[in-house]
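Pilot study result, target chain (760 residues):
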Amino acid sequence: MGRRRKDNESPELEALQDSGHALLSIDGLWCPSCATATERLIQQTPGVIEAGVSFATSAALVRWEPERLHLFELARRVRRLGYRLGPPLTAQQTLARIDEEVERLGIRLAMAALFGFWTMVLSVLLYVDSGGIASSSAGWWIALAAGIAAAPMLVIVGSPILLAGWRTLRTGVPGMDTLVSLGACSALGLSIWHLSQGSSEVYFDTAVMLITLLTLGRFIETRTLRHAAKAIDALQNTVPETAERIDAQGGITEVPADEIQLGETIRVSAGQRIPLDGLVLSGSSQLDRAVLSGESLPCSVASGDRVEAGCVNLVSPLTLCVDRTVGHRHIDRIGARIAEAAGTKSDTQRLANGVARWVVPVAIALALITFLGTSLGGIELEQALLRSISVLVIACPCAVGIAVPVAYVAAASQAARHGILFRHPAALETMAKVDTVLFDKTGTLTQGRLSVTDVLIHACSPGLPDTADAVLALAAKAEQGVDHVIARALRAAQTATDIATVAGTTQRFERGVRHDDPQLGTVLVGNRAFLSQQNVTCNPSTSYESDDEISLHVEVAVNGTWLATIRLQDQLREDAREAMSRLQTAGIECAIVTGDAAPPAQAVARQLGIPANRVFAACSPEAKTAILNNTHGTIAFAGDGINDGPALARADVGLAVADASSTATAAASVAITEGGVARIADALDAARRAYRVMRQNLVFALAYNAIGLSLAAFGAIPPVAAAIAMAASSLTVVANASRLASNTMTPSAPKEKPQSVRAQ
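Predicted structure:
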């Protein structure tokens, strides 16, 4: 009753009622089948428009009609199924839930190994000497001992599976849990009945094998499901936890960011990351917005401009009026979209569960027909029961259940040795079907940082630097000690070794720096507007190359003379051309979807041979997701930034490249940990080979089930032989999958190119 009152009086649910749309938590989900059953129940509730349940995040994305359905009624329905509907969990709470489940599954596996071992040993004694020990009085005691050894394992390890099987059967979506439960209960019931009749013909080992294999699969699956919660947790860790509040008297106090209220004023010092969204009240500066938008160049902000949490203030202090607090910031909405994308994707995509849904009713119907047919045909009741039990035992698709996981483990292990991490079997399966790859630009196809491309010298005078290296060394000296993306690029490009000890003084301005060099005099480094403010004339007729619209220019002047222009760009990754060539050869359509401006995006596309109409620039995180939704086929999205998080989670396959942000890496279903984007082609090849083996395994397992069911129905296979055949089929599947571990990565076979990308 306490739980009922808590559900009915939940203020969090009451607050969400009128919205008609929410991401809700579901407490108590044990497996993907549970998530599927809960999803079916929610979808069948009057007033629900749409529902999707994710086992990975223990969350339900629900849309409903507020006038027809109250969330309290939905909570009552979910509670009757054995779970609890509540407000969304934090990322830390979700991670803690998954970690607790991993720990519980680990304990169950340890118990299964301990007690299951003795059950199997004792059962083997009966199998190998069926005409000797098994037929003697000692055989009965051995059979009883096998049952006693199996009891703790079946009760403690098997009870969650039995409960999940019952729940999914009630809601009309039976899966592997239901079938394993039926097979285990049948084997257990028949064994107990034989013991009561003084017979040693028992099948405790069959029940133990079924429960152990499924629990092992759940353990592996749960371990790979942490990345959805880790994505949101990593996103929340990107922004500062504290903010500098300015009170009415002008005093500044550092307080937790979640204590700041709407309308309050905060200060963001130069070099700091902005903690909250707001409007600039005073000050002007430049922001590094790459974390949110993917823009490769800094952008200027001044009084009246909006700024978002997560951006880095590069130049001067800013005073902000907060207009979005913690939980409502732009970066928080990105986290919510990642969670919603995970909620819309079913974690029961594994082929085994799909097979089990139709195997269950077929097996039950065939077992019932076998029992009734043999009974009416004059066969003894015990023999009829044995035949029907054999049908249920042989129908338990252990080979089907492990066909995908063992192939996944073999392929994923091989790929991991090459720096490719597949998060779960569904990612590998889907990667094999990919026909279109959408690429973020900044940090994915490009290096994600500015670098010097060339130096144009305008003045040649005695005593002034007259080479590119000398100009870069001078600019690096002037920028020494400045923490700015341009300053870092200049320091990285210079080749001098003596700038660590810089003589003279440096004064920092909004658009540049002034350095008083004891030998050369006054050195100015900045943009043209800065040099103009310092009374230095830059020849306006000087023209640059046609790609200046994608470059950033830094001007250098000495003692009032315009000396040189340094050009910087975000350049291609070394293996970007190779990656694009291999993917296009494999029949994959490639496109660029970036938050950067159109000119640099089109320039990168030209270098990589991507058509101009396959470039989508200036895209917000929402726009990237919209393009994904309006692209046909099986889509992979490759990105590296926080702004890519929703697209990585929403895509059929999310690909996080090397050096990606923690949020992108956690949101992706495939992570490239070593090498560059060329590894994406390797991942495609590995996935296609693994998928072929998965299909081979499934074809064999299904053929085995079809033949075995027919023979069992006619009494040609007793339960003991069914259990042995079941084990043999599993070993065959494992042997076939082991071929993947020895294969080396080779280029993928071509596929027909679809013309699929179109903007919304």
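One observation from the pilot: DSSP finds 27 helices and 26 strands in the chain. A full batch analysis is planned for the follow-on phase.
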